[in-house]
Amino acid sequence: MKKSARGTLSLLILLALSTPVWADPAxxxxxxxxxxxxxxxxxxxxxxxxxxxxxxxxxxxxxxxxMKYSIVDNTWAAIAPGVPVAERKKKNVKKGAYxxxxxxxxxxxxxxxxxxxxxxxxADNLWTALPSPEFTxxxxxxxxxxxxxxGKQYIYAGSGSNTAEWxxxxxxxxxxxxxxxxxxxxxxxxxxxxxxxDGGNLLYFLTSRGKTNSFFVTNLADVAPVWTEKRELPVxxxxxxxxxxxxxxxLLWFNNLVYAVKGGSTKEFWYFDPAADSWSYVGEVGxxxxxxxxxxxxxxxxxxxxxxxxxxxxxxxxxxxxxxVAEMSSLRPAVAGSPVPMTxxxxxxxxxxxxxxxxxxxQMPVHGAxxxxxxxxxxxxxxxxxxxxxxxxxxxxxxxxxxxxxxxxASVAESNLVVLE
Length: 421
What we know:
The protein is mostly beta strands. It has one helix at 2-16, and strands at 27-29, 47-51, 54-58, 66-70, 75-78, 98-101, 105-109, 117-121, 126-129, 143-149, 152-158, 166-170, 175-178, 194-197, 202-209, 212-219, 228-229, 250-254, 257-261, 268-273, 278-284, 300-302, 307-310, 318-321, 340-341, 347-350, 357-362, 370-375, 381-387, 391-396, 400-407, 411-419.
């Protein structure tokens, strides 16, 4: 029933689009955040978590506002009371806040350089103040993740305050304790750092360091876990932009991959394939349609079927992402009939084979919007772009073999691409 309702929602949104509809639309704009008590848009500290059929949101922006989104109905509603205000400091949710879920409850780190930590019981509509993690500098760019380990549940969390501190909260005992490894693998974990748990034993960590986006993994089941550095998240996109992970950066285990957004007012959307030990650039959140780049707290979350994203950055934009079709040969149009193959030579990839950038263009039979998707040898989409002229610019990809596909909704062209070392 739940998936049927979600399918109906997706179909209604797709039918409402005025531009051509392709197979694998990926990003769909859902209803913007509406109805929050203070009417302030999502900003510093804003973030999302998913439990059941609802996405829970802390608005941030120096408010206590707390919202929920119905995945089935595509609607927002305010929740009262909002995030508690401690009597002594009287601070609302601000920059550095973070939100986590355990399937039953919502947990909120208030940020604003405080150590305030709260639990919201969904069943009881009740907030409870929890013990403070007592980070030395307070939480300034927090990051956290729920971990199920050897039959127990923990929240692993760091303050993001330019320290290597992190701890874990034992949900059953209701107490903080030291995490292993004893410290994060960098001297200074900055705003925009992220954690992702694979549901087994592996915990991933992403942070900016110097001129790189450093990426690590540890096996929590080991007697003495250690951090192992993995391939770094590229600073440059295939189209040439250079950005490090900043505020709004987030990691998420989804669809057996580690997904990442860089934040920092960018829309960059990547995934890491553990089997291949490689990063792939998927494209922009919103497929380029989002009005601003991501800048908030926890910007992405999943219910296991869809990935949700709140942009923040003083907007109320809210999006969801459907996993791409994995098989290159079974792409199906989302319009009646089958797309007609374009004439030979319509799709150009120069140079091919390539070292470095490849310029991709397509002579379309009819002037209008077209979508480019590049698939790697495993059939995963690693790059997307859209154009109304048929020119997609220069794309830089790791060495390998690819299938390049341009789809107008009514016609399609495909070509192989080889990228050399």
